[in-house]
Each structure stands twice: as C-alpha cells, then as structure tokens.
Design brief:
By secondary structure, this protein is of the alpha/beta class. It contains 18 helices and 15 strands. β1 (37-41) and β2 (44-47) form a beta hairpin. The structure holds 3-[O-phosphonopyridoxyl]--amino-benzoic acid.
C-alpha cells in the first residue's frame, strides 16, 4: 500500500507526518514507508493497514504487563477527574505519597527513599546529581568523577550521555561532562558467545574499576553507574560474579554504586529488580519504563536511606536538594504507577516471567545455526541475536527487524547488528514459538 494512502487511513496527512521530527529514527526512510500503529491489546499491536503485530519488545522495553490494561486506564481517568495537577515543590498529593511508599516497600533492602522524575534520562541525571551532592554534603566535594561503561545506555541528558558508552549517541554533542570515565564492556565473543544467562568468563573486567581508582585516586570518584544487564547497547548479561566485584571495589573506596534499572526493573529478569536477581544491592537505583507500564511517562530514583539522610542537615526550613521537575510525581503518572504495581502483584507477573524464561532461552538458542547468527544471549525475558556485520557495513539487524514487521512481529534492530527482544511478561509459550519462527523466517530471507 502506498504510504500516503496508509497515512490517510490513520487519519493523517502527508504534511503532518513531515512536521513530525521523530526521535532515534531514520526520518526520511521512515516517511517514505511509515509504520503506523493504531491500537494494542495484550501481546499485539494493530497497524494502520489492519495487521496484527506480535510485540517482541514490549514497545520499547517498557510495556511489561502487556497492552490495553483497563485497570491502568481507569485509575488514570479517575485521578484526572479528581486532581489534574498538584505542584511538586512544597506540595504533594495522596497518590504520590502512596506510590513512594509502595516502591520503598518493594525495593531491595534499604533503598527506601524515592525521588520522582518523568523519564529514564531524568532518573539517571538525578541519580548522578544526588551522588555528587551526597559527597559534598559529607564534606567530600572533591569526589566529582562519574564512571560509566562502554556500550552503556543511560538516556540522552548530558549526564547520562557522559557516562554512556555508545559513540553514535555522544559524538555530535561536544565534550560532555568533565571527569567521566568508562569501564570496559563485558562482551567478547571469543570467550562468551552463546552463553545462557550470565557468562562464566569476564568477572575480572570489574577490576578495571580498581585501576581507575588507582589512576585518578579513589578519593576523586563519586559514583559508578552500570545497567545490571546492558540493554540498548546489545543485551549484555553481566559475567558471573562481576556485579558483586564492582560492589566490593566501591565499598573499599567509598564510591557509590548506581544500578540503572530502567530496563531491568519491574520483572524483566523474573524478580522485581536486577538487584534482587543478582543479589547485589546498589546505593542508588534508577527506574522508568515499566513503572507505569509506559501508559504515561514517569521515572523514579530509589536511594539508600543513609544516602538520603546525609542531606537532612542544616536548618529544617532549608531546601536539601536543589533539584526537581514541574511534573515530578504527577497525579496521572502516580495513578498509572499504582495500578501497574497492583497488576504486577495480583497477577504475579514477575514470577510468571521467571517461569517463562527457560522456555524463552530454549527458543532463542534454537536459532543458533541460522544465517549470519554469531551470538545469542539471554537473561530473564531479555534476549539478543547478534549478526555478523555485512561486508558493505549495512545493519543486518535493522533489516531483519523490518522484515519481521512485514511478517507481523515487532523486534528491535540495534545499531550494533543486534536484534533485541524484551517481550511483555505475559507472553505465552505459543507466542514465543511464533516469535521464534518469524525470526527464523526473516533471517533466512536475508541470506
Ligand atoms: N537508562 C536505560 C538503561 C535505558 O534503557 C534510559 C535510561 C532512558 O530512558 P528514557 O525514558 O529517557 O528514554 C533508557 C532508555 C533502544 C532504546 O535503543 C532504549 C531506551 C529508550 C529508547 C530506545 O532500544 N532505553
């Protein structure tokens, strides 16, 4: 179907489409052949041309409870009818208080202070600022370095970019924050290709933090931020023992450890958080995406009480942290968050994800041997298929993703020749079969 016809079908006109500058999208290619989604229910989208599309990525790694959740929509409607907005500075409202309490109660031990934001990017920048201000509040203003990791994705704010490790996302934007350093990433196909879950090889890569502490002097480092499982950088499960080793090095040197759980939070690995799954507790944790099932933008930063309490000094009428957003803890977002947490609890979706994960792993690894596949990785309901780079530099993963879409499956083709999978936690075995078979088809088509 010609694109103009498809667009008008969705009630759009060509001019409006041209007016829309789309994020992280090849705009010209897209607008020549747009993919327009008009509704969604459960595991499936419906496209403007009337096809059912199986959602293999939970939207953008965020619709963990599946689409079209009535209870979320109804709670949001009720909240909007009652309270459209309350200022987030100097005032609050019942839903924000309740959601803070719920998050504190479900979080890993001790992370019981909650700061609300509106996205993962804002959560990351908030966490980095809290880390810097924490040390300063304790008389250690010299701790200003922030350490990230190669291939990390921490959103698109200047803070998150500075500790992020994806060159394309950084190169156009100047020198970024001074004093940021990076750990090496943990993928090495010679040592850990086709691992199931955490690879046995690679824990020693955490020792790079010890070397940075020697190089810069540990007393200048404020925090280390890592995604427990790197997501947008290609789905890289941490080597066995790696996160524990990072924790130990941080403890030895008084460095704060931040887990960016924007993707791994809310059941993605079969536990509430990756911190639970790996048994390693960070000092600060960033959340977004699954917090509201992405029904409305929201993020949160969870902080260990000791970190929070370091700010609670000085006269009681003084602002302790000069930071926040107009819509921090917006009533609509808090309502969505509460309804989402109810669904996770009542339907035991995290346990369900844990029960589905072995089947998902089996299905993914059965694609070994398909054309161009050089690695398959998985953890919980996160998966990746890495393809051999094409001789002419084409991104094969993006091509496979496009072919999958035509065949009725949404997957994510990452820049690194990686097809990423992150289905809603409600996925059934039969849908995993459909996902696997469609992927196999698309891979063979490309060969
Ligand atoms: N941290 C992590 C770990 C993320 O995955 C962010 C922070 C930023 O969240 P916001 O809400 O500001 O987008 C993310 C977001 C991809 C892709 O390439 C990944 C994300 C967002 C959009 C696309 O698949 N992750």
């Amino acid at each position: 179907m010609p694109p103009t016809q498809m667009a008008s079908q969705a009630g759009l006109v060509e001019e409006n489409l041209q007016a829309y500058w789309m994020p992280f999208t090849p705009n010209r290619q897209f607008k020549a052949d747009p993919r327009i989604l008009v509704s969604a229910e459960g595991m499936y989208y419906r496209s403007a041309d009337g096809r059912k599309i199986l959602d293999g990525v939970a939207g953008l790694w965020c619709v963990n409870a599946g689409h079209g959740r009535r209870a979320i929509a109804e709670r949001m409607q009720a909240e909007m009818a009652r309270l459209d907005y309350a200022p987030s500075f100097n005032f609050t409202h019942p839903a924000a208080i309740e959601l803070a309490g719920r998050l504190a109660a479900m979080s890993p031990r001790g992370l019981n202070r909650v700061f609300f934001t509106n996205s993962g990017s804002e959560s990351v920048d908030t966490a980095l600022k809290i880390a810097l201000a924490y040390h300063r509040a304790r008389g250690h203003g010299e701790r200003q370095r922030l350490i990230g990791r190669e291939r990390a994705y921490h959103g698109v704010g200047f803070g998150g970019l500075s500790v992020g490790g994806l060159g394309n996302n950084r190169k156009a934007f100047g020198p970024l924050l001074a004093g940021a350093g990076h750990l090496p990433h943990t993928l090495d196909l010679e040592h850990n290709a086709f691992s199931r879950g955490s690879p046995a090889w690679g824990a020693h890569l955490a020792d790079a933090l010890e070397r940075l502490a020697t190089l810069h002097d540990a007393s200048t480092i404020a925090a280390v931020i890592v995604e427990p499982v790197a997501g947008a950088g290609g789905v890289l499960p941490p080597p066995q023992g790696y996160l524990r080793r990072l924790r130990e090095i941080c403890d030895r040197h008084g460095i704060l450890l931040i887990f960016d759980e924007v993707i791994t939070g809310f059941g993605r690995l079969g536990e509430a958080f990756a911190a639970d799954f790996f048994g390693v507790t960070p000092d600060i944790m960033t959340l977004a995406k699954g917090l509201t099932n992405a029904a409305v933008p929201m993020g949160a930063v969870l902080v260990r009480q000791e970190v929070h309490d370091a700010f609670m000094q000085g006269p009681p009428d003084s602002v302790e942290l000069f930071h926040g957003y107009t819509c921090s803890g917006h009533p609509l977002a808090c309502a969505a968050g509460l309804a989402t947490l109810d669904i996770y609890r009542d339907e035991q979706l995290f346990q369900r994800a844990a029960a589905t994960a072995p089947h998902f792993e089996q299905a993914l690894h059965s694609l070994r041997g398909e054309p161009h596949v050089v690695d398959i990785r998985n953890q919980g309901l996160l998966g990746a298929i890495e393809l051999e780079p094409a001789p002419d530099g084409r991104n094969r993963a993006a091509e496979v993703a496009m072919r999958c879409y035509r065949k009725g499956l949404m997957v994510r083709g990452l820049a690194t020749n990686v097809i990423a999978l992150s289905p809603p936690l409600i996925i059934e075995k039969s849908e995993i079969g459909e996902l696997r078979d469609t992927l196999a088809d698309a891979l063979r088509d490309l060969a």
